[in-house]
Design brief:
The chain is globular, with a radius of gyration of 20 Å. The protein is an alpha/beta fold. The two termini are 38 Å apart. Helix content is 34%, strand content 15%. It has one domain: Aldolase class I (TIM Barrel, Alpha-Beta Barrel). The structure holds flavin mononucleotide. The site of flavin mononucleotide has 22 residues, from strand 4 and helix 9. Flavin mononucleotide (FMN) binds next to strand 4 and helix 9.
Length: 367
């Protein structure tokens, strides 16, 4: 498609946000925070470089210390975290961008070495995930989690609301609840990980209750026009599974409809056409489709009405000026897998823009 006619470049309203284009940067954990969960100058530079996105969704951020899931991931669990993130949001806004904080509680996917007092990870039910997790001591099998009590669930719900308020205090434009990829909210949603017999387990509506309550709490704290949700139907990452995926997600979306959230990031791992067709009519806000898109597929999704905007992950890592490259139909770089979760500046802030490549070529031809 001629880039000048591309639907990727028409503006979009998503709740309180005004996106100048429909190219959204996916939330991506990059593990560059310090051991206290504070991001630094490199992270400000990384997001600033990508501020040409319609909006950016941050890497997963733990809302409370028990939610931390991986080494060197950042938090919004205390006042110091707010100060650290403020530097990032200021840099993004100065560059003309918008950035949303993704709140991610890892639940059973965490490891005692990451948790206060080497605590046991928490989950809806005490079911150990298959597989291993990367820690500072190397790869370790997952621990068996402890099932949360109802008062503990209520405390976590409150802590999400406090973290959302901290996100706004830190200058984020909105908050996204991560209810995908096998972390705590998805552990509640999914039949394999939730065998509770109380109001949080059993029927699809009961399994949705935790996500509904967290969204109500976040929207209560910062407003539904600044609240979004991410789901990943049929993504079996982190040993998750569901006896009836479609029932779970149609039930969830019908139940949260009265909340009138700003946006939904829907990133199914399989049967994407089916999920977008069934889920989009149940959601009144901006519907973002993600996972595995390139420019042509994104334009097709916008043209056939299956999404309002498209979320790009790995392409945004390797192409900080991705919208410009799409507009010019310029070649795209590929991300280096070795530096996705480690490497400091390397593989983080050193992917060149088209302008930097042109300047480099001009210097070389002058030499
Ligand atoms: C390095 C890396 C880290 C990721 N971390 C997160 C995360 O913190 N939160 C999240 O919701 N998804 C995370 N994802 C998934 C992406 O948001 C996205 O859904 C996925 O990469 C598929 O999109 P893509 O095919 O355009 O890359 C991550 C993906 C990558 C590649």
């Amino acid at each position: 498609m001629d880039p000048s006619n591309s639907p990727l470049f028409s503006p979009l309203a998503a709740g309180a946000l005004r996106l100048p284009n429909r190219i959204v940067m996916a939330p991506m954990t990059r593990s560059r925070a310090d051991d206290e969960g504070n991001v630094g100058a490199l992270t400000a530079q990384y997001y600033e470089q990508r501020a040409g996105a319609g909006m950016m969704i941050s890497e997963g951020i733990y809302p409370e210390p028990m939610g931390k899931g991986y080494v060197r991931t950042p938090g919004l669990a205390e006042a110091g975290h707010v100060v650290a993130w403020r530097r990032v949001t200021d840099a993004v806004h100065a560059a003309g961008g918008r950035i949303v904080a993704q709140l991610m509680h890892a639940g059973r996917i965490s490891d005692p070495s990451l948790l206060p007092g080497h605590a046991t990870p928490v989950a809806p039910s005490a079911i150990r995930p298959q597989g291993v997790t990367y820690t500072d001591d190397g790869l370790k099998p997952h621990a068996t989690p402890r099932a949360l009590t109802v008062p503990e669930i209520r405390m976590i719900v409150d802590n999400f609301a406090h973290a959302a308020q901290r996100a706004v205090d830190a200058g984020f434009d909105a908050v996204e609840l991560h209810a995908g990829s096998g972390y705590l909210p998805m552990q509640f949603l999914s039949t394999r990980t939730n065998v509770r017999s109380d109001a949080y387990g059993g029927s699809a509506l009961n399994r949705s209750r935790f996500v509904i309550e967290v969204l109500e709490a976040i929207a209560g704290a910062i407003g539904s026009a600044r609240t979004g949700l991410k789901i990943t139907p049929e993504k079996r990452f982190n040993d998750i599974d569901d006896a009836d995926w479609l029932d779970t997600y149609t039930t969830l979306l019908a139940a949260i409809r009265p909340l009138q959230l700003a946006f939904l990031e829907s990133a199914p791992e399989a049967n994407a056409a089916l999920y977008h067709a069934r889920l989009r009519p149940l959601f009144d806000g901006a519907y973002f489709a993600g996972a595995g898109f390139d420019r042509a597929r994104a334009e097709a999704a916008l043209c056939d009405g299956s999404a309002d905007a498209v979320v790009f992950g790995q392409l945004f890592i390797a192409n900080p000026d991705l919208p410009r490259r799409f507009a010019l139909n310029a070649p795209l770089a590929q991300a280096d897998r070795a530096t996705l979760y480690a490497g400091g500046a390397r593989g983080y802030v050193d992917y060149p823009t088209l302008d930097a490549l042109a300047a480099q070529a001009a210097t070389e031809s002058a030499e």
